[in-house]
Design brief:
Length: 202
């Protein structure tokens, strides 16, 4: 019944009804809401994007994952809304946005992701930004990632920066990774640095 109802709404391209299902957590159960997110991703278009962005801050991780997948499916048309979402007051929205931007892989996201890496107060957002920049192989981000690797107070952010530098590669990334080995105390970060140095092309 859930699938048939959602499929009918999708066939009718009833974005308003699907959006209401997705964003009404007290009214609809998770399976129906997840299917609504999937349907919005399949329909695409500018009207499908705002409710999916709203769903990024859901407490239920299955809903946020469904919203992220739908936005990835929509792809570049969602870029502007996702970049705007990097300034959302809710850190969960920002985490979802950086993840989706990394998966879409559009170079337009590099500059705003660097700004997030340098300035966001939430460690999980900075970590996600570092990961996204690695996926984008953003050479322009090497300097910021190097500073992050040396100075960020959160070890998980430093670890993500090390992995990103390994994915990007190049002599400047190599130098930053080698410098980190001289002073990094966290064994997990050190291991990530060593792995990055062993597999990257410099």
């Amino acid at each position: 019944m859930v699938t048939s109802n959602i499929d009918k709404l999708k066939a009718d391209q009833n974005i308003k009804a699907l959006s209401e299902i997705l964003t009404s957590q007290w009214k609809y159960e998770s399976p129906m809401r997840r299917r609504a997110a999937e349907a919005l991703g399949e329909i695409g278009g500018p009207r499908a994007i705002p409710p999916l962005i709203t769903a990024l801050k859901e407490v239920d991780p299955s809903i946020t994952r469904a919203a992220e997948k739908a936005l990835i499916q929509i792809g570049p048309p969602a870029l502007d809304a996702l970049i705007k979402a990097l300034r959302d007051p809710d850190w969960r929205t920002r985490v979802g946005a950086v993840h989706v931007l990394g998966e879409i892989g559009d170079p337009k996201a590099i500059k705003p992701l660097i700004e997030v890496l340098e300035k966001d107060q939430q460690w999980s957002v900075r970590s996600g930004a570092a990961e996204a920049l690695g996926k984008l192989e953003a050479e322009k981000a090497v300097k910021s990632l190097s500073v992050t690797l040396e100075e960020d107070i959160n070890w998980e952010v430093r670890l993500a920066a090390a992995q990103a530098l390994g994915e990007i590669g190049g002599p400047n990334a190599q130098k930053a990774l080698k410098r980190s080995l001289e002073k990094e105390q966290n064994y997990q970060v050190r291991r990530a640095v060593e792995e990055a140095l062993s597999r990257a092309r410099f």
